[in-house]
Amino acid sequence: MFLIPTLSGGGAERVTVTLLEHLDRSRFESHLALVDAVGPLLKELPADIPLHDLKAGRVRRAFPGIVRLARKLRPQVVHSAMVELNLATVLLRPFFPPAVRVLIREDTSPGALNAQGRKHPLIWNWLYRWLYPRADKIICVGDHVLDELADTFAIPRSKLVRIYNPVDLESARRLAEAGGNPYCGKGPHLVAAGRLAKEKAFDMLLDAMPMVRAASPDADLTILGDGPLKPDLLAQREALGLAGAVHMPGFQPNPYPHFKHADLFVLPSRWEGFGLVAIEALAVGTPVVATDCPGAVREILAGCPLAQLVPPSDPQALAEAVIAALESAQSGFHPHQSLDAFLGRFDVKTVLREYEEILGT
Asked: Which end of the chain is less enclosed by CB atoms within 10 A, N or C?
């Protein structure tokens, strides 16, 4: 029984759908429970996966529904994702059937969330220390999360396991060919993707664009995604005189043509749990410039022949790195002979073996 709040277009939701799509049907009968059955990724949920809509609106209102469903399905494993639902799942564990194992997936660094102004950080820290050890296993999306949970919150390392987020490389490359080139104009074309929220720092990327266009006057930027800061970003675009150069078409069910046909993918985040979209861009051969922000970005991009890191929250450094990467791309320098070997550890075939082992233990 998989638990997640919604199927919005974020990385944690994408990972859940990927797992449900690929888990071995001969070994696992998977069910998906959503706090609210909303979000664009609902269309991608495999048809043979039973969907349970708790219709709760908020995680705390879903408590009775989670318990009722666990008692009805009597699953061997309950697997939750995203911190509020993780805390709820382990808190409710005493009300589940006694044989149920509880696995939670931690997608984000707690310290990074606290550092960016999370309300009541001491209470959150206490909740991590008190509740997380009650899970049977905690799946961490990177070593940075695993080490933080162990060192900062005293969670036994025996309960922690690192499993990277999966990317279906074959599907990504197939979908990249399905839509044609979405760009017009001379370019170069930059692309970014993610929820339009503070942590993704698209405002920093917009601040960098005038400097990029001073070096490449025809450069344009497409930001894929929706979120609460869209009105602010549109206003910033107008204030910077970038109305014709920055495009924000919203969430795209198939972003891979945008990734493949771009000259560069940019990940400007202030903090990042994993940075799945950067791996998806690399999967279709597009170079990446990313900020070395708190989270797994440095970890997952280390040794990548097509990626470079820059300091976070520094529009000038970001612009300089983008300009340098575009110059390399325009000179035809694409040293990606070893790219498939680099991406292998994120391939869904590799990651799925790790998930199936922990789910079937």
From this structure: C
Q: CA dist 185 to 93, 182, 244, Å?
A: 56, 10, 11
The CB-side HSE value for 34 (13 A sphere, CA atoms) comes to 19
CA–CA gap between residue 161 and residue 250 (Å, rounded): 35
Residue that is written with structure tokens 């001491």 in the block: 122
List the beta bridge partners of residue 193: 224
Sign for the pseudo-dihedral over CA of 243, 247, 249, 250: negative
Domains of the chain, with CATH numbers?
2-163 (3.40.50.2000), 169-345 (3.40.50.2000)
pLDDT digits (tens, 9 = 90+) for 32-62: 999 999 999 999 999 999 999 999 999 999 9
Polymer length of the chain: 361
pTM: 0.92
DSSP 298-336: HHHHTT-TTEEEE-TT-HHHHHHHHHHHHHHHHTT----
**Helix/strand/coil for 130:** helix
pLDDT digits (tens, 9 = 90+) for 309-331: 999 999 999 999 999 999 987 65
pLDDT at 333 over 90: no
81 and 12 in contact (C-beta within 8 Å)?
yes
